[in-house]
Write a structure and sequence with these properties.
By secondary structure, this protein is an all-alpha fold. It has ten helices and no strands. Helix 8 crosses helix 9. About 25% of the residues are buried.
């Protein structure tokens, strides 16, 4: 078994070598913290959730069967913890309208965005992302920034794959609306 493989360290932990868990913490701490911060919008809460996630993962490692990637299993623990905290805050998630972007709209966006200064684009994308509900931000982060597959995102969030696809599409549409309204007029006047 490859020593760099997660299962190698998981097996060591399951067999009583508890210090092997530190490898998994080191490997995934930024990922778990990033997801926590995206959802909770507060660095202290995100730090606490990340710590709780690893404690829960350590305590439950005996139940990890290996049917999904360890990162997916760990994301699921963090995601559920964040949802619990958000429910405590009574954050309301709202649905977006059903209108779809056309392929031409997406092509126009892509062409226009290549004309914009990359720093301005990055800032605009961060602001557009901030307009999304926390749950949608997580989906966008998992898909675009963490390169998770739809199937893995469905496992992490407990949503169906088709629901994940719809939510990501709606989030992209909402971000498109924000970008269209808020980026330089000259960039979008052809739209």
């Amino acid at each position: 078994m490859n020593p760099k493989d997660d299962h190698y360290y998981i097996d060591k932990v399951k067999n009583g070598e508890l210090s092997a868990f530190s490898y998994l913490v080191e490997k995934y701490r930024d990922m778990v913290y990033g997801l926590s911060l995206k959802m909770l919008k507060n660095s202290e809460d995100a730090e606490e959730l990340a710590q709780d996630t690893f404690v829960k993962a350590f305590q439950s490692i005996g139940t990890y069967r290996g049917s999904s990637k360890f990162s997916t299993w760990l994301y699921r623990i963090a995601y559920n913890g964040a949802i619990t905290q958000l429910r405590k805050r009574k954050v309301e998630l709202y649905s977006l309208d059903e209108q779809r972007l056309t392929d031409q709209d997406e092509l126009d966006i892509s062409n226009r965005l290549t004309e914009i200064d990359q720093d301005a684009l990055g800032e605009s994308l961060r602001k557009a992302m901030a307009t999304l509900p926390e749950g949608d931000q997580v989906l966008i982060t998992l898909f675009y920034y963490e390169d998770q597959r739809m199937e893995d995102i469905a496992q992490i969030t407990g949503l169906s794959q088709s629901n994940v696809k719809v939510k990501i599409h709606r989030a992209r549409k909402k971000m498109y609306g924000y970008l269209k309204e808020n980026l330089e007029e000259a960039v979008f006047n052809a739209l």
